[in-house]
Design goal:
The chain has 497 residues and is mainly α. The protein has 19 helices and 2 strands. Strands 1-2 form a two-stranded antiparallel sheet. The longest helix is centred in the middle third of the chain and has 34 residues. It is globular, with a radius of gyration of 22 Å. 60% of the residues are buried.
Length: 497
């Protein structure tokens, strides 16, 4: 047993309290506290991952052994999520230094969100998964509603209402499973649910409620309605953070509940459950892409793109073999880096030029060359152009579908590449192959990277560095993607055993 699983949950909580207390002494110290906490979190999660890929790391909270006590369990998959949460959260802080918000309560809430995300990643208990989902949700609602506009408050309220429905359905599903088995420990639940019978109405109802509740958290079509407003109306820093991590961790929770708790045997005993996952994912891919194409505002294009991209992961869950699930996890990591980077780049462009719609991106490469280059790389990565990580993920998922002879899903996965190209190609065409309009900011006097003199103060080196690092990671993760896939395979084989 190791204390590391408990420490990675405790550190951001302590950081959150420290940020609030520091605010009593001196304002605007929250960012520094958050950076220290997240730097420590990166060190702890990397140390945890170094052990978790070799052996399953567990921690029992208190003195009550599992299945009666609360257990934290970390394997290669949960360690991947914990490291991803820590690294992305630290990277977004570099962007937030100038972009703001700068208040201590904001950074206390920021660290509380990291607590929820990390807790979901490492818990081995179905009820505590709900607790951490609620912590994650409540912090995200506050951050979204914290923008300066009325639209932010409305988006936060909508997110709160829909998100609460999703969490309640998940909790109701866990309650059904508890009634059937008398336990909440995930490993124990899997054995007891099998003993009760995977084809019983009680177990089937529990599965349905858990999946629908998490579909809402992931934003699978048509349960996605909270997402576009939350992403589009939140401050850029918040958009970058929640677009990268919230639905990603919720999808990890779906993987854990489907394969650790209900297991592959449940899917084999209930073909309809597998069909629901497959159809839900496929419809989300197609409709999310179509909706993205029809949007005129950049952040809404990116938001509907996420509806489509997470549909791809849900399809991989329905395929349920080692190859497809390896692709699903690579896609979760790649999507977090690329989509978070895209939202932050959109924020940088808006700060430098005021451009927020597709039409306003005409000739953007002349006005903001660095931001345009980063956005172009990230967009092509999302499409799946080699050597970006998006290509590796889609290759694994498509190959997994072929291995499972799920031909309709394989066609939809290949179609998803063309659909993604449909909404990103028009951005790339406008940025690099059209002239800037006469009223563009370059008439007001350009400086080094294309921003105006008046705008330079709002675009910091940290903001530029963050989007460049995101673009480089999109390519770098693709280069090592197949090696990372081989590292994941033993853990996924145990998950499916």
């Amino acid at each position: 047993m190791s204390d590391l699983p408990a420490l990675v949950v405790a550190l951001p909580i302590l950081g959150s309290v420290a940020a609030l207390l520091a605010g009593l002494v001196r304002e605007r110290t929250g960012w520094h506290v958050a950076v220290l906490a997240m730097a420590g979190q990166v060190v702890l999660t990397v140390a945890l991952a170094a052990r978790a890929f070799d052996e399953r790391v567990t921690y029992v909270v208190g003195w009550f052994e599992a299945p009666y006590g609360i257990e934290l369990v970390v394997d290669g998959l949960s360690a991947t999520m914990a490291v991803l949460v820590a690294v992305v959260s630290l990277g977004v802080l570099a962007y937030a230094r100038r972009a703001g918000p700068r208040s201590n309560p904001f950074y206390a809430t920021y660290l509380l969100l990291v607590t929820g995300l990390t807790g979901v990643s490492v818990t081995g208990d179905a009820f505590n998964l709900y607790v951490f989902i609620e912590i994650m949700g409540l912090a995200a609602y506050v951050l979204v509603a914290g923008g300066r506009t009325a639209e932010s408050a409305i988006a936060g309220l909508k997110y709160l209402i829909v998100g609460t429905v999703g969490a309640s359905l998940y909790l109701l599903g866990v309650a059904y499973a508890y009634v059937a088995t008398g336990t909440l420990n995930m490993a124990d639940l899997s054995n007891e649910l099998a003993a009760v019978g995977h084809d019983t109405t009680l177990v089937q109802t529990a599965f349905a409620l858990v999946v629908v509740g998490l579909f809402i958290k992931i934003a699978v079509f048509p349960l996605h309605t909270w997402q576009p407003d939350a992403y589009a109306d939140a401050p850029p820093v918040v958009s970058g953070l929640i677009s990268a991590l919230v639905s990603t961790v919720a999808t990890y929770a779906l993987v854990r509940m489907v394969f650790t708790v209900f297991t592959v045997d449940f899917l084999l005993a209930n073909p309809a459950a597998r069909t629901v996952l497959a159809v839900g994912g496929a419809v989300s891919i197609v409709v999310g892409s179509v909706l993205a194409v029809t949007q005129t505002e950049i952040k809404r294009v990116l938001a509907y793109s996420s509806v489509s991209q997470f549909g791809l992961v849900v399809v991989a869950i329905a395929v349920a073999n080692v190859t497809a699930l390896t692709g699903a996890f690579i896609h979760l990591v790649g999507h977090a880096v690329m989509k978070g980077g895209l939202f932050l780049t959109a924020g940088l462009v808006a700060s430098a030029t005021g451009a927020r719609s597709v039409d306003e991106y005409d000739g953007l490469s002349e006005r903001v060359p660095l931001g345009s280059a980063a956005l172009g790389v990230l967009a092509l990565g999302m499409v799946g152009v080699p050597p970006a990580v998006g290509f590796v993920a889609k290759w694994y998922i498509a190959l997994g579908s072929v291995e499972a002879q799920a031909w309709p899903l394989a066609v939809v996965i290949l179609l998803s590449t063309l659909l993604t190209l449909a909404y990103f190609a028009r951005l790339i065409e406008r940025m690099f192959f059209r002239d800037a309009p006469e009223s563009a900011p370059d008439d007001r006097g350009l400086v080094a990277d294309g921003a105006t003199v008046a705008d330079v103060a709002s675009v910091s080196t940290g903001m530029r560095a963050t989007v460049v690092v995101a673009a480089l990671l999109a390519v770098g993760l693709g280069v090592v993607g197949f090696e990372y896939g081989q590292l994941l395979e033993p853990t996924i084989e145990r998950l499916l055993a």
